[in-house]
């Protein structure tokens, strides 16, 4: 944050700060890897994940169906426009098209908004969402262990039916991580840090909900996608959210006389953002 707009400017860009790389395959049993995870989440809230068990061929398949979808005729994509496909033109610097779908809980999927073209996009999306959900569960447990908590301390707060959305983003050249094109940045120490492109990695950004549950120990980073003048960019993002209207708050084991409660119990996204804003003031 700065003293005026509240965020760092584009000139405050650091290319020298490395983005942590965490091996998810080591997290369940390695204290060292859990320590690296804790440091990454306490300092910046963003890291790159290796050892996730998803093959490069399948990741290429996910990118492939996303690219094929965005290459469809506009009239075909508009079939899914009510809550799925969307054209974003609110501001030129963030011009993109996107496909936004709920994937969990499964019984809440609106399949009429799931594209039927290209072939097998539904099948690929379903498989990808299952794989990502397994990784989310692994991360929740590892994050709890890194803070010496019971392993279900965070996952229990998300409820029996946590919500997961997938969003395919297509950024035209004038204007995720794509395997050839850098673009994602996050704020650390009041500077924008560019996330480098490493083949086969997944980029993890911590959300506001985890900052609240950790009583401010973990950080939810401000992030953005920057423009590229001559290359298109495609990203596939997953968002994991608390079961609707379920109250969350700091885990009791993270509250004591040395670190008092920073957040009240909250149950809506607006409340999350308001609490986060007051903490940062």
UniProtKB/TrEMBL annotation:
The lineage of its organism: Eukaryota, Viridiplantae, Streptophyta, Embryophyta, Tracheophyta. The keyword Transmembrane does not apply. One of its GO terms (molecular function) is metal ion binding. PROSITE patterns: FE2OG_OXY (PS51471). It holds the Pfam family DIOX_N. It comes from the Eukaryota. Residues 105-242 form the Fe2OG dioxygenase domain. PANTHER family: OXOGLUTARATE/IRON-DEPENDENT DIOXYGENASE. This is Fe2OG dioxygenase domain-containing protein. Belongs to the iron/ascorbate-dependent oxidoreductase family. Signal peptide: none annotated. Keywords: Iron, Metal-binding, Oxidoreductase. InterPro entries: DIOX_N (IPR026992), IPNS-like_FE2OG_OXY (IPR044861), IPNS-like_sf (IPR027443), Oxoglu/Fe-dep_dioxygenase_dom (IPR005123), Plant_2OG-oxidoreductases (IPR050295).
């Amino acid at each position: 944050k700065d003293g005026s707009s509240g965020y760092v400017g584009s000139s405050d860009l650091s290319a020298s700060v490395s983005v942590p790389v965490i091996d998810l395959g080591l997290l369940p049993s390695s204290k060292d890897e859990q320590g690296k995870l804790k440091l990454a989440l306490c300092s910046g809230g963003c890291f790159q994940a290796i050892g996730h068990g998803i093959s490069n061929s399948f990741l290429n398949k996910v990118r492939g169906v996303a690219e094929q979808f965005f290459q469809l005729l506009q009239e075909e994509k508009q079939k899914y426009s009510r809550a799925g496909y969307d054209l974003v033109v609110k501001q030129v610097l963030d011009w993109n098209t996107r496909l936004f779908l709920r994937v969990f809980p499964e019984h809440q999927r609106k399949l009429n908004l799931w594209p039927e073209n290209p072939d097998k996009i539904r099948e690929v999306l379903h498989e990808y969402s299952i794989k990502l959900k397994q990784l989310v569960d692994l991360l929740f447990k590892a994050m709890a262990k890194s803070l010496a908590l019971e392993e279900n301390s965070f996952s229990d707060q998300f409820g029996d039916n946590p919500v997961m959305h997938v969003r395919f983003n297509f950024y035209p050249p004038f204007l995720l991580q794509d395997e050839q094109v850098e673009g994602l940045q996050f704020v650390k120490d009041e500077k924008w840090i560019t996330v480098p492109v490493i083949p086969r990695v997944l980029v993890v950004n911590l959300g506001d909900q985890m900052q609240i549950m950790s009583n401010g120990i973990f950080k939810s980073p401000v992030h953005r996608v920057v423009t590229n003048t001559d290359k298109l960019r495609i990203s596939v993002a997953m968002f994991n959210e608390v079961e609707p209207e379920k109250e969350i708050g700091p885990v009791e084991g993270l509250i004591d006389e040395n670190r008092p409660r920073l957040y009240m119990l909250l149950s809506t996204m607006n409340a999350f953002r308001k609490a986060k804003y007051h903490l940062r003031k």
